[in-house]
């Protein structure tokens, strides 16, 4: 018997193939104009990171062609990819789309019966300089001239510092939603404001969202979803919220974005000079300190150390955030009887698990619990979807789980989670205005009219019922009256 | 040629595993002196554009600069990519990068305009090469001039590289086998687990082919077999020592790499004008491990060739990326007795050692063969004509400086094939 | 004026909330509605197998009582087991 399954065999929800951690960044970049990229590509670090963000095939074609003096010919792309020489240009365009969107290549031009993609010169120059180290923009950070006997924090200390700062924010968010008490320090007001403008937290006493009391924020469903993301995604989301906030204040964000990439290329444990590395983005650098991206020995010094949060920004995929994180992150064992064993003592992870797991036993390094209907549904009430729970479970799966035959999570559990999710949404409710016709002709005309105006919700030709959006009621009524008159006079 | 269905071509991989590139760089001083003063190239009539490019002198420092940029591009192409470099000089090989963990590589101050990993790699390669050159100098001054005549010790470097590969991915097969002995397909279980790096070896050969494939130092008979015998740092003095182990050692490495699914790419620098015969054993290595073999045409543009041919990781080769057409591979072997490259050889039916003439006693395993079969074998062998047909697909006429191989190729001839008539003769074994 | 004899082009307009659901949920809703009287009935119009129109002011109540009804029909494992 064929078991119905929600998980399509080809789209197995493994963490690496699901949404990329830089999805928010990608959509932001895709909406920018040429001039914005010209500004970005002045920095070699940006060129390097943008190159890495391309899909592998596209990336290697760019590298393949980097040292050539000629524009990239479409025929070359086809032969390199073993495409049929007669393949349509759209197909080539499709492959090169990411590079076109990032303005690395200009759109196709025709020249003497050849189809060419001209290279963006600033990108080409930037990437060449990145590879040869001949740039002049200081985009990889100017080291700080420190005294011989200055104290230098070790890498572990920097990691701990960054972790504390960022988890502090996450813990604050969780505790606001669960009402369970950790003794959580409230983040600084700039951070809270960002959490509010980004919609991750709201002030429940301020329905308009205009003048919130930032000391009384509680987490929203968007915030809960944010908590379940992996770290890389969270970091980029926060950074993009920050960037959007800057844009909303009509500040130039290219400098700031270029700084993010530079930070991503820096070396953990090395100190850099703020004023020389980022002369035009100093205030943004200060803001990042509040999230734990950088560590400053003293608030007003020019010296700063990037933490692992910053240096791992450009590592492309979540798995690569390796070292201390990767193994610590893989702590969940999920059995087919819905029992969960979580080898962790991290307060934040436990709090997140507590959102949808009925925790039964707590040992110093182990949590035993059960995925049950009540807890999962209460999590769903908070706005967490089944697929988010699934992706959280699979991205935190213990290495042992990989030893059983795939899929990683047993289909019964995945399906059950989806079923619980569906159960919640059995009713679809929408405001409507129902038109009940007796004339088939009038019904069809009105249906066409409503369709053309995107006002149609549902049409039942047999019963001659038409359901339309309430706000279009007057317009449709007008139309019906007019048609009625026409039809009647036609009699 | 059937074009792939249009739907298929859309299924390009979204991600690739991180990739480790192990480079074996031939830095034999004599070879590089040849390369830095190449003879003028013969005219290349098929393509006037290529003919215009002059023979490019390529000195080691020039090439290392190009190589560094290429390695940087490898590191740049994906986070988590790594590079390992071995230098192979006359009779010895050494790890150049990464520095051994105990060595305190002076952490040079980061430069504001270069990515720190690039800077680390580049400075370390430079330092390592200088160290090796200094050692070479020292050897010469100690009067050990003969050592320069030894071929570059590819085998030693290759062995070290394979050990390195084995070290970085031991857990994949053993751990999986322990936990799940039923799993047949190691690669299958790899793909499920968290990302395992894919490895490949790139051999950059600077030594003209005849030096590697033909060794006429007929050093008499030796009983050593299967000894990849170049623990070079001890300096094995004897001339034939390298080559004797050389062929068997190289082939052992190749089979090990084949089993470990590590492709061996070969870039052969000496252009046809220096040496018409390609390094056939390296070519075999590339062919057997599904690597890419390519010979430079001596006309510059190495940086682009490196990027175009050797940069895509194995998971992207063949599909979707095209690989350059591989020249026909000569499958000749070297005999164990005189180290000659053979078209027709005689194989011991017990231990599969190869000899250039029929023998009554196998030199390796001491098996005795009936003495009266020897004349028959010899006469039969004269009937065998070396087959001029290449063993692989002949190269299509391409512009990239391909040349015709006028080699009489022949696979090694099994003794039992040659003596088909004598099949019934009992073979006495001591 | 809504007489079908008098005017073939007459149109009847009703506004409310359109409910789209599976047929099982629909039956439960019908059952819930049948237990109510007079002004407390929430259904305006039963349309077909999977649709009905209900009164706007009862939306939340209907959703909750459907959840309750479904909850009654769900097996919950004894948490002590």
UniProtKB/TrEMBL annotation, chain A:
Localization, UniProt: Nucleus
Entry annotated with the keyword Lyase: no
Signal sequence extent: none
Primary localization: nucleus
Record key words, sorted: DNA damage, DNA repair, Nucleus, Transcription, Transcription regulation
Biased composition (Low complexity): 13-23
The protein's name: RNA polymerase II transcription factor B subunit 2
Species name: Kwoniella shivajii
UniProtKB/TrEMBL annotation, chain B:
Comp. bias intervals (Basic and acidic residues): 410-430
Keywords: DNA damage, DNA repair, Metal-binding, Nucleus, Transcription, Transcription regulation, Zinc, Zinc-finger
Main location per the UniProt record: nucleus
Compartment annotation: Nucleus
UniProt feature, compositional bias: Polar residues: 207-222
Superkingdom, taxonomy of origin: Eukaryota
Alphabetized Pfam families for the sequence: Tfb4 (PF03850)
Entries under InterPro entries matching the protein: TFIIH_Tfb4/GTF2H3, vWFA_dom_sf
Region named Disordered: 207-241, 398-430
Described function: Component of the general transcription and DNA repair factor IIH (TFIIH) core complex, which is involved in general and transcription-coupled nucleotide excision repair (NER) of damaged DNA and, when complexed to TFIIK, in RNA transcription by RNA polymerase II. In NER, TFIIH acts by opening DNA around the lesion to allow the excision of the damaged oligonucleotide and its replacement by a new DNA fragment. In transcription, TFIIH has an essential role in transcription initiation.
Quaternary structure annotation from Swiss-Prot or TrEMBL: Component of the 7-subunit TFIIH core complex composed of XPB/SSL2, XPD/RAD3, SSL1, TFB1, TFB2, TFB4 and TFB5, which is active in NER. The core complex associates with the 3-subunit CTD-kinase module TFIIK composed of CCL1, KIN28 and TFB3 to form the 10-subunit holoenzyme (holo-TFIIH) active in transcription.
Family membership noted in the UniProt record: Belongs to the TFB4 family.
Record-given protein name: General transcription and DNA repair factor IIH subunit TFB4
UniProtKB/TrEMBL annotation, chain C:
Keyword annotations of the record: DNA damage, DNA repair, Nucleus, Transcription, Transcription regulation
Chief place where the protein resides: nucleus
InterPro entries tied to this protein: TFB5-like_sf, TFIIH_TTDA/Tfb5
Locations listed in the record: Nucleus
PANTHER family: GENERAL TRANSCRIPTION FACTOR IIH SUBUNIT 5
Family classification: Belongs to the TFB5 family.
The name this protein goes by in its record: General transcription and DNA repair factor IIH subunit TFB5
Organism per entry: Kwoniella shivajii
């Amino acid at each position: 018997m064929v078991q119905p399954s929600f998980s399509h065999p080809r789209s197995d929800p493994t963490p690496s193939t699901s949404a990329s951690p830089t999805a928010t960044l990608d959509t932001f970049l895709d909406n920018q104009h040429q001039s914005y990229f010209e500004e970005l590509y002045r920095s070699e670090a940006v060129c390097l990171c943008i190159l890495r963000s391309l899909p592998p095939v596209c990336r290697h074609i760019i590298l393949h062609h980097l040292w050539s003096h000629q524009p990239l010919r479409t025929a070359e792309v086809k032969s390199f990819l073993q495409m049929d020489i007669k393949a349509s240009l759209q197909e080539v365009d499709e492959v090169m789309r990411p590079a076109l969107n990032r303005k690395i290549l200009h759109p196709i031009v025709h020249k003497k019966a050849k189809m060419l993609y001209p290279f963006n010169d600033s990108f080409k120059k930037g990437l060449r300089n990145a590879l040869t180290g001949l740039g002049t923009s200081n985009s990889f950070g100017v080291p700080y001239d420190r005294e011989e006997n200055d104290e230098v924090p070790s890498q572990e200390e920097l990691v701990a510092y960054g972790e504390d700062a960022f988890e502090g924010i996450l813990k604050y968010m969780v505790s606001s939603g669960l009402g369970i008490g950790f003794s959580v320090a409230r983040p600084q007001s700039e951070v809270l404001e960002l959490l509010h403008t980004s919609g991750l937290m709201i002030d429940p006493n301020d329905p308009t969202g205009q003048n919130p009391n930032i000391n009384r924020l509680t987490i929203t469903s968007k915030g809960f979803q944010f908590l379940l993301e992996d770290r890389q995604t969270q970091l980029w989301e926060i950074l993009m919220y920050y960037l959007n906030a800057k844009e909303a204040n009509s500040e130039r964000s290219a400098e700031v974005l270029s700084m993010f990439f530079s930070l991503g290329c820096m070396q953990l444990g090395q100190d850099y000079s703020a004023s020389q590395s980022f002369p035009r983005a100093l205030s943004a650098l200060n803001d990042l300190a509040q999230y734990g991206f950088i560590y400053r020995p003293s608030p007003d010094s020019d010296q700063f150390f990037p933490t692992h949060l910053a240096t791992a920004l450009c590592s492309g995929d979540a798995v690569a955030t390796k070292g201390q994180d990767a193994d610590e992150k893989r702590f969940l064992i999920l059995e087919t009887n819905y029992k969960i064993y979580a080898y962790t003592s991290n307060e934040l992870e436990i709090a997140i698990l507590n959102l949808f797991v009925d925790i039964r036993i707590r040992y110093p390094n182990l949590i035993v619990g059960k995925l049950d209907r009540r807890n999962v549904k209460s999590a769903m009430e908070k706005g967490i979807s089944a697929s988010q729970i699934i992706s959280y479970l699979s991205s935190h799966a213990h290495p042992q789980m990989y030893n059983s035959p795939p899929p990683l999570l047993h289909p019964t559990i995945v399906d059950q989670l989806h079923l619980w999710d569906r159960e919640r949404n059995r009713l679809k409710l929408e405001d409507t205005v129902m038109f009940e016709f007796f004339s088939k002709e009038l019904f069809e005309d009105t249906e066409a009219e409503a369709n053309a105006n995107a006002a149609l919700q549902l049409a039942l030709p047999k019963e001659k019922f038409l359901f339309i959006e309430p706000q279009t009621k007057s317009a449709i009524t007008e139309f019906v009256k007019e048609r009625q008159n026409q039809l009647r006079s036609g009699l | 040629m059937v074009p792939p269905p249009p739907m298929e071509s859309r299924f390009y991989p979204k991600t690739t595993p991180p990739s480790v590139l192990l480079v074996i760089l031939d830095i034999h001083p004599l070879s590089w002196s040849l390369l830095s003063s190449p003879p003028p190239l013969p005219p290349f009539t098929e393509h006037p554009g290529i003919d215009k490019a002059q023979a490019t002198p390529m000195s080691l420092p020039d090439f290392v600069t190009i190589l560094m940029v290429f390695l940087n591009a490898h590191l740049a192409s994906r986070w988590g990519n790594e590079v390992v470099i071995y230098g192979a000089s006359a009779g010895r090989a050494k790890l150049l990068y990464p520095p051994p963990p105990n060595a305190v590589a002076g952490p040079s101050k980061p430069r504001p305009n270069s990515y720190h990993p690039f800077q680390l790699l580049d400075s370390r390669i430079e330092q390592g090469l200088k160290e090796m050159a200094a050692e070479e100098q020292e050897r010469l001054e100690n009067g050990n001039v003969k050592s320069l005549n030894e071929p570059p010790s590819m085998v030693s470097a290759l062995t070290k590289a394979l050990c390195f590969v084995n070290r970085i991915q031991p857990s994949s097969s053993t751990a999986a086998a322990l936990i799940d002995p039923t799993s047949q397909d190691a690669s299958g279980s790899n793909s499920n687990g968290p990302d395992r790096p894919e490895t490949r070896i790139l051999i950059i050969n600077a030594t003209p082919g005849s030096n590697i494939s033909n060794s006429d130092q007929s050093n008499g008979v030796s009983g050593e077999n299967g000894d990849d015998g170049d623990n070079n740092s001890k300096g094995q003095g004897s001339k034939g020592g390298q080559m004797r182990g050389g062929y068997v050692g190289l082939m052992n490495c190749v089979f090990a790499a084949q089993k470990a699914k590590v492709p061996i790419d070969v870039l052969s620098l000496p252009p046809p004008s220096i040496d018409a015969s390609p390094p056939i054993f390296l070519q075999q290595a590339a062919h057997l491990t599904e690597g890419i073999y390519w010979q430079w045409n001596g006309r510059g543009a190495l940086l682009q060739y490196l990027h175009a041919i050797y940069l895509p990781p194995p998971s992207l080769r063949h599909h979707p990326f095209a690989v350059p057409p591989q020249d026909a591979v000569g499958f000749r072997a070297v005999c164990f007795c005189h180290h000659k490259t053979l078209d027709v050889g005689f194989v011991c039916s017990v231990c599969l050692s190869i000899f250039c003439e029929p023998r009554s006693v196998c030199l390796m395993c001491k098996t005795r063969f009936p003495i009266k079969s020897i004349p028959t074998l010899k006469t039969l062998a004269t009937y065998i004509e070396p087959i001029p047909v290449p063993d692989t697909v002949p190269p299509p006429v391409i512009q990239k400086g391909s040349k015709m191989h006028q080699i009489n190729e022949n696979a090694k001839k099994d003794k039992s094939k040659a003596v088909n008539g004598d099949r019934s003769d009992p073979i006495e074994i001591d | 004026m809504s007489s079908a004899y008098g005017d073939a082009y007459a149109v009847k307009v009703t506004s409310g909330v359109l409910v789209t659901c599976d047929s099982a949920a629909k039956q439960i809703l019908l059952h819930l509605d049948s237990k109510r009287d007079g002004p407390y009935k929430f259904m305006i119009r039963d349309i077909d197998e999977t649709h009905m129109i209900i009164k706007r002011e009862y939306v939340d109540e209907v959703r909750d009582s459907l959840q309750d009804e479904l909850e009654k029909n769900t097996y919950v494992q004894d948490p002590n087991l």
